[in-house]
Amino acid sequence: KVVVGDQDGVVTCFGIKKGEAVPVFKTLPGQKISRLELGGALNTPQEKIFVAIGSEVRGFTKRGKQFLSFETNLTESIKAMYISGADLFLCASYIYNHYCDCKDQHYFLSGDKINDVLCLPVDKVKSITPVLACQDRVLRVLQGSNLLYEVELPGPPTVLALSNGNGGDSGEEIVYGTSDGKLGLTQITGTKAIPRWEIGNEKKRGGILCIDSFDILGDGVKELLVGRDDGMIEIYNFESADDPVLRHDYALSESIASIQGGCVGKDGYDEILAATYSGWLTGLTTEPVHREGGSGEELKLSQEMQSKISSLRNELEQLQIKVLQEREKYQQSSQCSTAVSSVPAFSVNDKFTLNRDDASYSLILEVQTAIDNVLVQSDVPLDLLDVDKNSAVVSFSSCDFEPNSNFLLATYRCQANTTRLELKVRSIEGQYGTLQAYITPRIQPKTCQVHQYQIKPLSLHQRTHSIDQDRPMNTLMLKGQFSFAEIHSWVVFCLPEVPEKTPAGECITFYFQNTFLGTQLETTYRKGEGYFKSDNISTISILKDVLSKEATKRKINLNISYDVNEDSVRHTLQLIHPKLEYQQLLAKKIHLIDALRELQVHEGNVDFLLPKYRSILEEADQLLEEYKRQPAHLERLYGMITDLFIDKFKFKGTNVKTKVPLLLEILDGCDQDGLIAFFDAA
Description:
By secondary structure, this protein is of the alpha+beta class. The protein has ten helices and 43 strands.
């Protein structure tokens, strides 16, 4: 049997007989179901169904009879839920609550948003050990209402699961999946965490949304089943005792909301069942599909398959007739004198995240029905980058580049049945504003939703656990009559991945890394003072401008002082130079491709060419592909070096904008020593 909770608040339980879904029970619609878990007494079959709806938890028997309605004391909707015997663990955005037999036991306020929760198996660990997966790349291990310790992870964890479904031999092993597609296992002991293995996201696949353990290959060892937000289903097998190996994968067209292994369709054949965002349930079976080759390419279908196809055809015809009838009914009612136009509601699943690998933002839009088109508009300069998986046709509209107007206007026209669209943009630090997406699905009457995404002043910075303190650092110091909440709101305005809620305590420190250059930033602030340290003087300059502007808006008088380290400029140039050299070389190669191809056509062969030119011809397609993916990379590096030059002298009170053309000439020469000498001499 399979039980599913959906966005209409309906809990559906069904089985499969002869390839057809046979319903067991179905509840009435209501508020959206955020989580569904199975529970029951410890060491017995987990056959009770628990669902989280708003701030309430309901329980159903396997026959569909409701036996529990528990209204929690949470002020927000439940985001994560875990059940272990009589213990219920619930999380809203920042709040964790533990109940035993529906009685409040423990409470914890997290420093950042909680994405998932679980508890180590009580029968093995002998104590209640809850683990929270938090957005700030940390697992928080609790004991009662107190934080026991934190575990630093390589990415923001989105989902947690017990290894092997039971925490492994010790009961302490947890598998986590991150929003940037990494997978890992860590052992949660009583005093510290021991990392066991970690798999990076080499294939640049989507973030991980769900994990299950099930022996789908029938080798006596449970495999790891993983569902990603780009529709990939993966099966990892533990061939050696150490790291798992990817054995099989399967691509669906929508994000995988949930994944489970079990026996559903036919006795003796296990399946992987996946639920996708728009409400499809897909089963991947281990049952062999027999195909007997007939004459030519003809395939003989079994009697069972033929009857299934004919019943599906009938169902489709009936649905088409029903749609036509409803459409006619709507047309008639919309043309009568008392007509009231109704705007159809549709929900959009969106995600706007910074990718560390290529310093770009991914905007993923997913709609429950097919998307017709998406208009993207921005009031700050942005580069649109190519996405391999994107089959939509993009067209650009010209912009007037006036202040506070459009810098980007692009329309994506989607092919039929596209429910998921992925875009990539790269921003320029120091230029901040809003990116807007106007989403129009293929529904009648035509309707559109607008979603807004903030491009922050230091948009290419990403939170990190620690920084290199030995680098030459520039410091910006702020003092004034501002509260802790006010300076925190300014930091939230400037930097991504900072929790909107003001942190507990009197003082807080955050560390960041620039994903494009690798420079770093340390922010420490409290009521009345703030300290910002970076090895990139441009980062300090952007912060100085934005923070003073925000303080002026609130009529707060700021005392700003700074300490500039001359060595930091040379250090930043040394970080930029390898990237600059590589991009200049790439641009030169691209420039030569057409001429070399013409030579190849005229001469017939290219043996007379120097090896370096022959290799350009051989790699031409890869070079063009790379250049297409990063169209304005070189211009961005030139811009960063120019900003660095201007900012260095701005802190000395000198305006050097007249020397910029000379700087650009030196950049074209690609001489690192000459560039450093120019910075020193100017």
